[in-house]
Every structure is written in structure tokens, then in C-alpha cells.
Amino acid sequence: MPNRLTRSVLLLSTLAYTGVHSASVSSTPAQTFHGIGGSGAWWPNDLYHFPEATRQNLSNLLFSSSGLGLSSYRYNIGAGGASTTGPGDAQGVYFLQEASKRGVTHLTAFANSAPAKLTSGGASCNGRFVSGTGGAYGTFLADVIAHFRGQGVNIDLVSPMNEPDSSFGPSPCGQEGMQVLPNQRAEVVNGLYSALSSRGLASTVGILADESSNLNAASSEYSSWLPQVVDKVAAIVHHTYDFPSDSSYTSYVSNTKNSYPGKATWMSEVCCSLGNPDGSGKGWSGGYDPTIKNALMFAGLVFQSLVTAGEAHYDFWTLVSNQLGCSPLSNPSCPNVANSNGWNDGVIYYDPNYATNKNYVLYVKKQFWTYKHFGNFVKPGSQRRPIIGSDASKFTMAVSDANSYYILAMNPNAGDTSLTLTFPDAACANRAHRTSASEDFVQLSGAVRSGSNWVLALKGTSLTTYIFDRRNC
Ligand SMILES: *[C@@H]1O[C@H](CO)[C@@H](O)[C@H](O)[C@H]1NC(C)=O
């Protein structure tokens, strides 16, 4: 029979082995969430040609709460190039309307280039914004938005320059693009703001800028344009193709807040990384990985923006992609296996040869299921509650609304652990949903009570959301 000392050593080693962690949900809210979403670029051109039942299924997978439950959708205003949709194009309009019908809260119109006739090369890529055309370009964008709003599609955000740091040349280009020099960006914002104002839309349609490709480029160029137009910008949006460390991301956010008080920064685009659940190995690259490994890596990026950087809005890039890197009709299991030919630029995939082989299957990657946790449980108007205590993980987030707490908790490691959580006020376990190698958002019973605390089991290599009702049990 072990003596007292041996028993406590045994107890300690049991704790270390099972990895018990404890933390508390703060009584003080952090940021209020704005939206979770992604872009319609440029899969609507293809998916529009799929059977109507599949187009409806896709719209439900993206925009309904039975699917991702996105609260943000970015519609691409084309500039007349071959690779994009435009306001006259039925393809992009179809999915914008489906998002609108399903009540997606925020609809952004974004453009990669001004209409070809306004750019330096007379094309929709490989050229530059022409100084002096800000009014004409702003009028074009405002007309498109007014047209949609007149039809009940309430676009409430507009981004006039997506990645102005590049022209996306040389021609032929892979996508539309227009370089806008830092000292030209204020003119673009001014032209758009006055066109929106003259249509009475300046207070209902917010301008997003400048969608620089990475945080370094963004922050080093703000001083050339942002001070001139900061009052006309609704939010300062950026991409994170530098895959920043936690410390460079947080210093970007605090520097930008200090220089431009009262303006939110948020994430409007990222994709295309391999890497591990804990974020090691991440970085811009090709390669397709449909497994839990990549799905958790991308979930970690969302946690980084929302928890570590404290931002209120997150958009992934293109949502739907044909970059499977394999041919599912000749190798039916290949959409479920990683390969180096494809790209991690979507959460749902389709056959690149659909037009000839008539394969209209939608291939759902594991990242779809992890992103669904954010789409379903991080709703506009809900608030983040910091999780405090030395065991708090940067991959765990508490969200509160009037009736519920949602605890999104990721375990990037192989071993099972648990988190003992203390709430600042009444909480009673409801249910949970878990995504792991073998589970897709499966419903489980809720957390287990332990005195005045709650124990949340965190299976190895999984993302679980525990839901609590804000009442006493
Ligand atoms: C929608 O597509 C998904 C993914 O391919 C599939 O599992 C599901 O059965 C489809 N639903 C309908 C109603 O077609």
C-alpha cells in the first residue's frame, strides 16, 4: 500500500498524463464580433453551370446554419477580365442573391481592378490606377452597389482595391489586378466616398481599405494615404500572406490602433498553407491537405486573428475551389488524401474537368467542418470573453450572447486533455459539437459539472465547441 508521499506523486503524474487544465471566463467582454466569411472569387463562373439542386446545396453549405452559417460574403465586382464575374454577369449575381436570401449579415463588394478602360494599360490586370480617375472609378462602384441595393441585395461594405501592391502581371494574368501606388490610394477612397455620398449611401455602405497582401506592406504604407482619408474608411482591412508570428500581428494591431484611434483592423483574406495543427510549418505554399491536420492549422489562424490579435471579423479566401490536384473520376478517394499538386485555397472543392466529364460532386474538406464552428458560433453582435489564468490557451475562445456561452476549444496535440472552466455568472451545460479526424461537427453531450466548475473534455487533435445556457441548472 503506497504511503502518502507515493500517493501524491501518483496523483501528480496522473494529472500530468491526462493534461488537466483550468481557467476562467472573464466577466468583462473584449471585442464585439462583426462577421465570419469568405469570397466568391471566381468559382461562381463554374458553379453557376452546375445543376440547380447542386447550386442550392452549395448555397446552403455556405450560407445556412445547417452549413457553415457564414455571416459575411464577398462578392467580386469584375473589371471586364476573362477570369472574373461582373455586375452584368449572371454567375456572380446568382450566389450573391443566394447569400442575401439566406440572411448573410454582411455583403461586401470587392474589386481587384478598376474597369479596364480606366487603367494605365487598358486592361483588367498588369497595369496601374490612373491618377485623376478616382471620381469615375468611384461612380462605377457606387452605381453597381446602388443597383443591387435597389433589388434588395443590401451590400453594406465595399473594397475598391484588393491587393493594390501588385498588378498581377505580366499578361496573360492569372487573375484581375491593378497596382495602386500608396500615394494614389487616398484618391481612390475619396472618389468612392463622394460617389456613395451623392447617392445617399455614405453612411450605409462602409469603405474597406486597403487589403494589402501582408501586414508589413500595409503598415509601412499607411502614412502615405490613410491619414488623408481615415474618416472615410469604415475599417482598415489586411491580408496575412506573411503568416505573421503572434508578436508581429499584435504589434501591427497596437501600432495601427495608436496611429488611427477608433478604427478597427480586420482580416479580409488568407489561404494556401500547409503546416501542423499547432501552427508550426505554416506559410504561403501550394499543396492540398484535406485532413484534420490542415483544418486545425487554419483554425489556429482564425484563433490568432480573433483571440491573439483581438480582431472582430475574419474572411477566408475563396471558399470553393477546383484545385484538388487530382482527378476524382479516375481515383475516387483522392479528394480525401493530401497531394502536392493542389492548393489549400477553398473549403469545398469541385472537379476541374466538370464541364467535360459532368462530375458535379462537391468535395467537402475537413477545413469546412472546423470553419463551421466559427461560422455557427461566432455571430455578429456576440462578444469575446477573455479566458484568463495561466492555463488559458491561445487556441480556446469564449463567446457570449444574451442567452449562451460558446467555448471553442482546440487541442492541437495528439493526447486527450481536459479543461476545467469557471464562469463569472450562471452557466449550465447544453450540448457540444466536435470535429476530429473521424468526426465532422458531431453532436455530443455537454460539459460535465464539477462543483461550481465545468469540465470540458478535449480529445487529441480536435476542435470542440461547448455550448452553455446562461442560467442556473
Ligand atoms: C450536398 O453536398 C454534400 C457534399 O457533397 C453532400 O454530402 C450532400 O449529400 C449534398 N446534399 C444534397 C441535399 O444534395
TrEMBL record:
Endo-beta-1,6-galactanase-like domain sequence ranges: 93-321
Keywords: Signal
SUPFAM superfamilies named in the record: (Trans)glycosidases (SSF51445)
Highest taxon of source: Eukaryota
GO molecular function, one term: hydrolase activity, hydrolyzing O-glycosyl compounds
Keyword rRNA-binding included in the entry's annotation: no
Signal peptide positions on this chain: 1-22
Keyword Coiled coil among record annotations: no
Pfam families found in the cross-reference section: Glyco_hydr_30_2
Protein's UniProt name: Endo-beta-1,6-galactanase-like domain-containing protein
Gene source species: Tricholomella constricta
